[in-house]
Amino acid sequence: MKRANYTPVREFVFQGFSNLQEHWLTLFIVFSALYILTLTGNLIIVTIIRIDHHLHTPMYFFLSVLSTSETFYSLVIIPRMLGSLVGLSQSISLECCGIQLFFFLGFAITNCLLLAVMGYDRYVAICNPLRYSIIMNWRVCVILASSVCAMGFLLSLAQAVAIFRLPFCNTLIEHFFCDVRPILDLACMVPVINDILTLVLSLMVITAPATFLCVSYVLIISTILKIASAEGRKKTFATCASHLTVVIIHYGCASIAYFKPKSENTSDQDQLISVTYTVITPLLNPVVYSLRNKEVQNALRKVLGRKSLS
């Protein structure tokens, strides 16, 4: 139902962390450190994959695309959040809010779909190794990466347009960036169509890829168990352990954020979950792949060795 009267809203004001004012400096230092680590880690991964010819494989190509997407994903959210913490403008125009939501969703959806593509790559490599080079040739890899990026931003555009066609009756966003649910809560009407669209998109970009990954890893694990030697099983599983770790964390956070019943929502809980998938999750990608992946570690040692010799 529409509310009787409303004045068109042209600006929103973020209220994120408003109940933690005495800890703003601490939050700024912590988030700044995590942001720098995220940027540095992802840039290192992209650089290493680019310069080390041993890493010019489909698996690491998709990893470099994921790291690039994660870098821009955090860039959309964190700098403005840091500015708000140190007392810069808490407000954002309607247009800038729409742009932030569009890019945030675009990179978030792209990341979800990329993880599914990386799971398919591991499935082909382990379950069909003799045809791997034919199935996952460079043309196919480029098409897959381009397709998930295009799909991510097309779905994001549809969601952003649907949301910002609504009239808004409140300017206070109980959040630290323009996310879907906090914006819909400001609408002058019950956004039934938008809620349905959000559910459909969540099923498409979270549930469907997660189901596909579950099936893929069931087949991968069953194939690994057929390997005769324990060393062979361990070595084969190591090639997908890092990806599986990132998948569990990434889809776990996304599922909690977008499938939690609205009746259970509180501002503090939503912000804590949002901090996890906007600040912590982008950092996990370089950390997990650098700590658990020997090929990345060896490539990093080579690069550091060359620089120290020069």
From TrEMBL:
One of its GO terms (molecular function) is olfactory receptor activity. InterPro entries: GPCR_Rhodpsn, GPCR_Rhodpsn_7TM, Olfact_rcpt. It is found in: Cell membrane. It comes from the Eukaryota. Residues 41-289 form the G-protein coupled receptors family 1 profile domain. It is a multi-pass membrane protein. Belongs to the G-protein coupled receptor 1 family. This is Olfactory receptor. It comes from Rattus norvegicus. The lineage of its organism: Eukaryota, Metazoa, Chordata, Craniata, Vertebrata. The gene is Or10j7.
